[in-house]
Request: fold
Amino acid sequence: MANITVSASNITVSQINKGVPAKAALSMTPCFFFLYINVVMLITLRSKAIFRETSRYILFTNMLFADSLTLVTCMLMYIFAIARLSILSIVCALVMLAGGVISLISPLSLAVMALERYIAICFPLRHAEITMCRRTGVAIAIVWALGSVKAFTNLILLLISGPLVSTLDFCSGLSMPDQFTDVNNAFTIIYFLSVGLTIVYTYIGIVAAARSASSDKCSAAKAHRTVLLHLIQLGLCLSSILSNTILTLVRTYLDLFAALNVQYVIFLGLVIFPRCLSPLIYGLRDQTFRPLFLYYFTFGFRANN
Reply:
């Protein structure tokens, strides 16, 4: 009976390990590719004064930087999980706290970017004054401060619950104490409802301005499409943040082998691609940014017209 149990266990481990190298290669290849794209975008955004001094490009740089940090964090944690490297609970908690801050920067930045487009269309005469570089920097600081509230709350709970000295084989949000999950869910609901309502409000305002006879129809139409894209990006961000909740359900109803396969798909489909595709789509829509980005992306082989 003992021999049968060991054999079954060995088969399970063999099945789990069988596809690991291929899955790791398939996961890391798009990660490194998108990370390269993000780095090129950041270099492009720092290459010209118009990108460094215009509020919407500054806000886009902030969102892109946060998404790049999120991508690097996810890649490192995935590599640790694949390599089965043990990690101290306190280290895992600190990584989760930092990741929690970074993950909220993108949706909060989307709200500020939508407000910037709303001001540009509805208050064009005051747009330059309201969106000065200094005030844009203050807005970015507020975004990071709001994104840090959840982390500080979790840190206080961590200190109250006592030191974490155990060792984990896999670090994720599911490895943290239950109060972490409750706090994360509460902040996720509050932030995403607030950001969603802000984007919807700006969308309605821009649509109303587009119907006004005194507005610039072309600019209003572009802003209308941009804010609509922000709403889609918010949905993509929400899908990545809800990945832990989906993983919990998967582990509850599926066996270990099936759950690991689903977890691999969730990692690519809900965590990696949404964080990478939305900045890429947003950046390539911009006629000023796109030619210079393609120039740097192709190492100068594509002429910058």
